[in-house]
TrEMBL record:
Record lineage: Eukaryota, Metazoa, Spiralia, Gnathifera, Rotifera
Name listed for the protein in its UniProt record: Uncharacterized protein
InterPro entries: Ankyrin_rpt-contain_sf (IPR036770)
Species name: Didymodactylos carnosus
Source superkingdom: Eukaryota
Length: 363
């Protein structure tokens, strides 16, 4: 009934495809599931002209196999050339003859049309309902939005192929970060061992990570969770590292505080203000709370005697060390009170350099 079917498949994938056909012919559902778990035959169906597996299940009127293949998201828009009988009369004669009364013609059909052709209305109805569902991507996004681990796990496992499941989970961690679902982030990281710093390219051509996605979506709790799980805030996206991104999106101060505590580079610059430090950026864009968090972080470094970190900041262009503190005190006085002479000298050198620069500008 089908023509031009390649019966000499030589590669391993082709042999597995033939095995699938035999399992469908024999109604061996469980063996079929075991086979497709290791071999992505659905991908092969989209890249070859072989007869779709769903057509075989329709021929055998096997509802269980049809439902299984539909759950695996086999392509329903794929067509295949089918030879069918035609009873058209000859245009040259008004008397039908045996030759022109029944001849075979080739017709391209999808699975739904083929089920109707074989008079399988119940299978055609099942396929039709599947065809009228939202797209696979939209259904996956809706599942993520439910914030339900069981529903998400069921959705993924129905794919029944390890490679496709893993690829789906790699996309899922970004969707969970966008939705702010801490439960699903933990699910993808723990159950599927997805790399917490996995990167992908956005539609705008920028690189993003789960934590950058969470920050750009203003999902502070999800962002903090990823930081606690070990996400690297130094990886750069559209607005440089995670700290710059958080400042750009005016994130909550507790997230900014955590990013600073995780030593995300304070010397980075906002791409729209490359000549300004992040503190100056906060001042010019009226991000007062964020500026205070940065000053508190510097004060904490001074209080703890973190000379190496302060020296790193100075060496990379950050000069706002002499921060104002309560009681009309400043960072230098705090360092002097704690007997951190090296930090006192560092602040003095920075202030002296700033004074020379201002004097030079006046000339």
């Amino acid at each position: 009934m089908f023509d031009n079917e390649d019966s000499t498949l030589q590669d391993d994938t082709g042999l597995q495809y033939v095995d699938c056909i035999r399992l469908i012919d024999g109604g061996q559902l469980h063996k079929f599931e075991s086979l497709v778990m290791k071999h992505d035959l659905i991908k092969m169906e989209t890249t070859t002209n072989n007869k779709p597996l769903l057509f075989n299940a329709i021929e055998h009127n096997d509802e269980n196999f049809v439902r299984l293949l539909l759950e695996m998201e086999v392509p329903l828009d794929k067509t295949y050339g089918v030879m069918i009988q035609s009873s058209d009369l000859s245009m040259e004669s008004s008397i039908p003859s045996l030759e022109n009364q029944h001849h075979m013609i080739k017709r391209l059909m999808n699975a739904h049309e083929y089920a109707l052709e074989l008079n399988r209305p119940h299978l055609a109805n099942i396929i039709w309902k599947k065809m009228n569902l939202p797209s696979f991507e939209e259904r996956y996004q809706n599942t993520i939005r439910t914030n339900d681990i069981r529903k998400c796990d069921n959705f993924i496992r129905k794919i029944r192929n390890e490679k496709r499941q893993y690829e789906l989970c790699k996309e899922g961690i970004f969707l969970a970060a966008y939705a702010g679902s801490v439960r699903l982030l933990d699910y993808f990281l723990t159950r599927w061992k997805i790399d917490i710093n996995i990167q992908k390219q956005t539609d705008d051509g920028y690189i993003t990570t789960p934590i950058l996605t969470a920050i750009t979506s203003n999902q502070s709790e999800a962002s903090k969770f990823l930081l606690f799980r070990g996400a690297d805030g130094s990886l750069k996206g559209q607005f440089d590292n995670a700290l710059v991104t958080a400042l750009n999106y005016n994130s909550h101060t507790d997230l900014i505080r955590l990013l600073l505590e995780k030593n995300v580079d304070l010397t980075a610059r906002h791409p729209s203000y490359p000549k300004l430090s992040l503190r100056d950026y906060c001042v010019i864009t009226d991000r007062v709370k964020a500026k205070c968090e940065i000053d508190n972080y510097i004060a904490k470094l001074i209080s703890n005697g973190s000379y190496k970190k302060l020296k790193y900041l100075v060496d990379h262009g950050y000069t706002h060390l002499n921060v104002r503190l309560k009681g009309k005190r400043d960072g230098r006085q705090l360092a002097n009170e704690r007997y951190y002479s090296n930090i006192v000298k560092l602040i003095d050198d920075v202030e002296e350099a700033k004074a020379r620069a201002r004097q030079k500008m006046n000339y």
